[in-house]
Amino acid sequence: MIKKDHIRTLLILSLIICSSFNNLFAQNLETKIDSAIKTVFNDPTGPGVVFMVAKKGKIIYQKAFGKANLELDANLHTDNVFELGSMTKQFTAVAVLMLEEQGKLNVNDPVSKYIPDYPSGDKITIHHLLTHTSGIKDFTKMKSLSDISQKDMTPKMMVDYFKNEPLDFAPGEKFEYDNSGYVLLGYIIELVSGETYEDFITGHIFKKVGMDQSLYASDRKVIRKRAYGYHKKSYGYVNKTVISFSVPFSSGSLMSTMGDMLKWQNALNHNVLLNGAETKKAFSKYQLNDGKEFTYGYGWHIKDINGTPTREHGGSIFGFKTMGVYIPEEDIYVLGLSNCDCNSPTKVTGDIAALTLKMFSK
């Protein structure tokens, strides 16, 4: 008969072995992630990047590399605030779905229901805007963009800026990434909700989720723990070009931190903001007019890593580049935020996601 002391000893030994294995696993993962990052982000004296890996809603890796402010020689930290660029589109899409869940709009509604004078507005739906299949010309490709880039524009002024451009293709005919469609969505959010886009996102998403360090971007406000953005020239780094964030508006004007973005991801996973049916719409693939499927939902690219489904989106705005990859099957979230538009975290984020998936799938 096995004595209780022997059982206790065996349990302690098993716990020690398990703990040692977990520590070795974590150290191995950290070493591999560090190596992947340093192949690209290897200038400790220049602007840099922060990376995070979370598993089942908990952070298992987070580090900062490089400087948050070159003039002050201030190091980046994992709680610095970054401009998100087009990762803003996730929030815009969810805001639209929240309004649909409240019965205030329908994604199949034509744009003309909300903006009666919009050209071809009876043929373009909210769904087309969400999926980049509207055919509306992307305002970032218009030659006159520099004329308004530093002006304070109302949402209506922004819509009027591009609305009379000819469509690039018939609505639903093909997928072509389009910032104008998401500006239009922000305007519709304002018309339907009776709130500004900034107030809607702040009040109904940031505050509800507890994203205390997230906000609508500004180059004028004093923002605590801001990471400063940079360009790289042949002669060295320079401060990013100043713009009016009323121009990218709901297509790219939000700021956040790694910790807040994890709160965002966890809120999506637990249907804090949307019910299951509306959430599914965001992460579904859709078809073009000819029945061909394309890999974009509402605010996310729907892709895969070696056959394992992922939800991905990046961002690029003066001085910043960002990338996030979520793997639903393993509940793995990988995020990279860079404060120089000279170095994109896109490939490294994908590489980290792939190696993390591989290690947890063994």
Automatic annotation (TrEMBL):
Give an example GO molecular function: hydrolase activity
User: Which residue positions does the secretion signal occupy?
Assistant: 1-26
Which superkingdom, per the lineage? Bacteria
The protein's UniProt keywords, in alphabetical order, are: Hydrolase, Signal
Domain Beta-lactamase-related positions: 46-342
Indicate what this protein is called per its UniProt record. Answer: Serine hydrolase
Which organism does this record belong to?
Answer: Pedobacter petrophilus
